Amino acid sequence: MSILAATPYLILNGRADEAIAHYQHALGTTTTSLQRFGDNNPNCPEALRNNVMHAELKAGHGTLMLSDGPGAAPPPPAGAVNVALHMNDEAQARRSFEILADGGTVFQPLMDAPWGALFGAVIDRYGVSWMFNCEKQPA
């Protein structure tokens, strides 16, 4: 099996900073990664520059991932959860993605991402949101 972990990914519609502080207080999480939309994109609209693009919180032995959401697309309802799959087999990632996309909606086609992985997102026929992140293997 090529799935290494299934991680909750919370989309918080512009309230990510507030949620990070709340989860630190309520759960004792620590922020291990935080990237804002404007950090690496000089063309980012000013209104989105400070929004959280991606954050990872250490929660005990697990991880919570979160974001303010995709600024250009209509945001999902607050509290929506995506299942983030971390994989290391590109062929398996592509097969799984295609199966989940059948009868569903591809939000982001699988493609090479700036962080060096294969990334894509799909909402399956049951309304479950899946995010795929597959480690690229050295050639």
Describe the structure.
This protein has helices at residues 16-27, 90-101; strands at 3-11, 30-36, 52-59, 62-67, 81-87, 105-112, 117-123, 129-135. The model has no long low-confidence stretch (mean pLDDT 87). It has a domain at 80-139: Signal recognition particle alu RNA binding heterodimer, srp9/1, CATH 3.30.720. The protein has an 8-stranded mixed sheet with strand order 2-3-4-1-5-8-7-6, with helices on one face. It has 2 helices and 8 strands. The radius of gyration is 15 Å and the shape is globular. With 139 residues, it is α+β, with helices and mostly antiparallel strands.
Keywords:
42% strand; 139 residues; 2 helices; alpha+beta; Signal recognition particle alu RNA binding heterodimer, srp9/1; globular; 8 strands
Percent helix: 10-25%
How many beta-strand runs?
A: 8
Major sheet details: 8 strands, mixed
From the spread of the alpha carbons, the general shape counts as globular
CATH architectural group of the domain at 80-139 = 2-Layer Sandwich
User: Could you please say which CATH topology of the domain at 80-139 applies here?
Assistant: Signal recognition particle alu RNA binding heterodimer, srp9/1
**What value does the average pLDDT take?**
87
Across the major sheet, the strand order is 2-3-4-1-5-8-7-6
- What fraction of the residues are assigned to beta strands by DSSP? 35-45%
Structural class call reads: alpha+beta
The first-level CATH class of the domain at 80-139 is given as: Alpha Beta
The arrangement of helices and strands along the chain is EHEEEEHEEE
The radius of gyration computed from the alpha-carbon positions, rounded to a whole number of angstroms, is: 15 Å
In DSSP terms, counting alpha (H) and pi (I) runs of 4 or more, how many helices? 2
